[in-house]
């Protein structure tokens, strides 16, 4: 048995290495905001911290435009052409060029929006600094390192950035007047991290920046378009609740909702890591058996994790919030983690890996329609007045997404069996 395990590890050494690096990275990226969360909440208060979250949420729409779905799609292309430096240079150059154009356009639209909304205009500096999170997409080609399965570069750079942010937060943010430093420190870190990653790609790995042809650019845009549209629609479903909650209920409830999202992110972390690590292998080998096995195991694992999480929830929440809060909303919110983990795995390692990008888009359209119908129903019933209702809507939307993708996954497995006969 021991010999068999050693053989499995040896044959999949790259997967185990990347799993270790991504585990370390994702764990740190999830935990690091939770380290500063109680401190910032105490120094800034829930109201001001709610504005910081809102600014980041609005800037995240620009992140989606700048990325344009390349993070998922291009990792597959890099994996396929990993030994062809000429092709790698073409891919990197094309994506950087497209992203730069999109970054400029997104900043123009972003600035117009924050200038027109009085509540946002009052905190214009906060919103401008928050736009800096787009540097992660503009300058940091994560898809390249994921595609060549060298996740140590991503791990070291991102952990370094997050560590500096945590240190600077505790050193310099001492009162409410320092609120603008929260996004500023993150922006500086992401910019430096992006420059380091480009140095590795173009200097250490000796890739060249090539002036991309229009026809090639169009090809990459068309390939990524379904994923981009998917992310835009998904983002509406996942992030609009923040804005609506802040407008209709209050910034204090935004902070509670955000805590639930952060804790859910921690719950789904193992499955998120597994999805990233297995994507290149499943995409290259079209390994539907591995996909099916991991999907079933992931759902069982998440169910156990959520049960344990709910047992310790009173202790967990006391770490982050000193005041007493009702735990029922967070308990219900944890169901979203179950549906999201399975749905996310099916998206990355099923729909994207096997080339079903249109079905991915359809799944999001159906899910968003369910979200809009649910939100509209509660709104016209005059019930959008507390955080629990927003959480119920979110869980419902994730459940609909899960059911549809499970249906498509069964079709993928059936089709792959037929094609390999």
The count of domains is 2
Helices and strands, in order, run as: HHHHHHHHHHHHHHHHHH
Uncertain runs: none
Mean pLDDT: 82
Approximate strand percentage: under 5%
- Count, helices: 18
Q: Report how far the terminal alpha carbons are from each other.
A: 31 Å
Number of strands: 0
Main beta sheet strand tally, sense and closure? none
The backbone outline, from C-alpha atoms, is globular
Derived from helix and strand composition plus strand pairing, the structural class reads: mainly alpha
In helices, the fraction of residues equals over 70%
Radius of gyration in whole Å, from Cα?
Answer: 21 Å
What does the model show?
- The chain has 421 residues and is mainly alpha-helical.
- It folds into 2 domains: 1-212, no CATH class; 240-421, no CATH class.
- It is 85% helix and 0% strand.
- Helix 2 packs across helix 9 and helix 6 (124-130) runs parallel beside helix 10 (181-204).
- The longest helix has 55 residues, at 13-67.
- The two termini are 31 Å apart.
Please describe the structure with a list of short key phrases separated by commas or semicolons.
421 residues; mainly alpha; 2 domains; 85% helix; 0% strand
Write the layout of secondary structure elements.
Elements: H1 2-11, H2 13-67, H3 70-80, H4 85-116, H5 118-121, H6 124-130, H7 135-139, H8 142-147, H9 151-172, H10 181-204, H11 214-248, H12 251-267, H13 269-285, H14 288-311, H15 313-320, H16 328-352, H17 357-380, H18 387-419
Helix pairs in contact: 2-4, 2-9, 2-11, 2-12, 2-13, 3-11, 3-13, 4-11, 6-10, 9-10, 11-12, 11-17, 11-18, 12-16, 13-16, 14-16, 16-18, 17-18
């Amino acid at each position: 048995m021991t010999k068999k395990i050693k053989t499995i590890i040896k044959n999949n050494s790259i997967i185990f290495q990347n799993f270790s690096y991504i585990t370390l990275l994702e764990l740190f990226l999830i935990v690091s905001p939770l380290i500063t969360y109680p401190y910032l909440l105490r120094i800034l208060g829930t109201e001001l911290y709610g504005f910081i979250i809102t600014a980041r949420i609005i800037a995240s729409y620009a992140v989606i435009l700048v990325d344009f779905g390349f993070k998922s799609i291009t990792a597959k292309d890099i994996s396929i052409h990993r030994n062809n430096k000429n092709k790698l240079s073409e891919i990197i150059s094309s994506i950087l060029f497209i992203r730069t154009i999109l970054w400029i356009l997104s900043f123009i639209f972003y600035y117009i929006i924050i200038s027109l909304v009085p509540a946002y205009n009052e905190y214009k500096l906060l919103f401008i600094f928050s736009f800096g999170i787009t540097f992660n997409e503009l300058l940091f080609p994560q898809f390249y390192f994921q595609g060549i399965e060298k996740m140590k570069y991503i791990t070291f750079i991102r952990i370094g950035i997050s560590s500096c942010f945590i240190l600077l937060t505790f050193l310099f943010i001492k009162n409410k007047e320092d609120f603008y430093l929260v996004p500023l420190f993150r922006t500086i870190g992401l910019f430096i991290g992006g420059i380091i990653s480009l140095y590795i790609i173009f200097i250490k790995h000796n890739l060249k920046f090539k002036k991309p042809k229009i026809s090639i650019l169009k090809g990459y845009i068309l390939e990524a378009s379904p994923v981009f549209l998917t992310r835009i629609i998904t983002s509406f479903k996942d992030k609009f609740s923040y804005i609506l909650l802040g407008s209709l209920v209050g910034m204090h409830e935004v902070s509670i909702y955000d805590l639930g999202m952060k804790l859910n992110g921690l719950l789904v972390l193992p499955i998120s890591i597994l999805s990233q690590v297995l994507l290149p292998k499943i995409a290259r080998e079209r390994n539907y058996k591995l996909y099916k096995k991991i999907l079933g195991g992931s759902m069982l694992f998440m169910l156990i994790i959520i049960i344990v999480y709910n047992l310790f929830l009173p202790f967990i929440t006391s770490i982050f919030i000193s005041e007493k809060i009702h735990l029922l909303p967070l308990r219900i919110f944890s169901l979203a983690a179950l549906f999201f983990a399975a749905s996310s795995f099916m998206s990355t390692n099923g729909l994207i890996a096997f080339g079903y990008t249109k079905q991915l888009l359809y799944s999001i359209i159906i899910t968003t329609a369910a979200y809009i119908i649910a939100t509209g129903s509660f709104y016209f019933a005059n019930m959008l007045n507390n955080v629990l209702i927003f959480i119920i809507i979110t869980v419902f939307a994730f459940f609909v997404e899960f059911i549809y993708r499970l249906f498509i996954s069964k079709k993928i497995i059936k089709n792959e069996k037929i094609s390999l006969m």
